[in-house]
# Entry
Amino acid sequence: MVIPWLGIPLKAVIDWAKPLASAKYIEFISESDQSMMPGTRSGLLDWPYTEALRMDEATHPLTILAVGLYGKSLLNQNGAPLRLVVPWKYGFKGAKSIVKIRFSESMPVSTWMKASPKEYGFYANVNPNVDHPRWSQATERRIGSGLFQSRIKTKMFNGYQEEVGSLYSGMDLAKNF
Amino acid sequence: MKIFTAKRFHQLVFWLSFAPLGYLIVLTLRDDLGANPVQRLIQFSGTWSLNFLLATLAMSPLVKMTGNKIWFGFLKLFGLWMFFFALLHSLVYVGIDHAFDWEEIFHDVFSHVYLISGLIALLLSVPLAATSNQWLKNKLGVFWKKLHQLIYVIAVLAVLHYWLAVKLDISSPFLYCAMLMLLLTFRFLP
# Structure
């Protein structure tokens, strides 16, 4: 889907927090109250949901902490009160209902990396050239375009090649997926 | 005058077997297929193809358990519904999801095991569907029986296709796999 998010640049929060120079990564931990979130009772994933970004990805102007969408505040099921939006990455990077943020020297292991390391990597950049082990990532269906919605070709970095490509120059994106 | 005749039972099951398709048509016409209608169509037709496939495999065990051969009378009905939903499933994938982009489809199918598995299951089902009438059954004799043993291969390929297509939560394919193994055990155990 193409969502009109409302939010603040994550950079603003990072600047306010004044992390040490040794901070290389930022980690997000989500709410996992079993009484409110029945899904967290399942052992399918290692709760609480954890995600992370490299500091340069986190301070990029496109990275925001969303507080609302379509002009309204986030509802609980949309990940209230705070939700991470990183538009050039796959959706699972966008942690919802964030309750704790911390900085780290070493690369954190996210929940999905733990669940299936061959399928879900740290970077999770939208990349039509790097297939998932079992299926292709070359095309996508845009949700909301109806029953006869045709698939469209997936764009590198979800169309943000110009804005974020330089963050990954020299990196083997097939290895660092 | 018996009320519960074999013929009436057969008619009841015949009309009931239209329910999944009917439900799907209603959902489609009411635009009630959800936020991702193409995915819903693919998943609905896929699961019902599997449901009818497992139903065909359940007939022989039911005959053994109830001592009544009436269940054999449903093999053709369930088999054809299985094929119908498999065809619908494939048509939505090819025609709606990928808009008949054959180059893209060939690349997708032949580089991914779950799709190769599904394709073979579909292709193997074609001769079964094509020979599912009494005239050909009589004409082909022993060969017909041997040909229709392919249903076991199709079943395994179909469950594999489902299992590999699912992300992390394999609970549903696991259930189908367990049911398949149970039915195969019933069928092949003396």
User: Anything to note?
Assistant: The interface with chain A takes residues 28, 31, 33, 35-39, 41, 96-99, 101, 104, 107-108, 111-114, 164-165, 168-169 of chain B (CB under 8 Å).
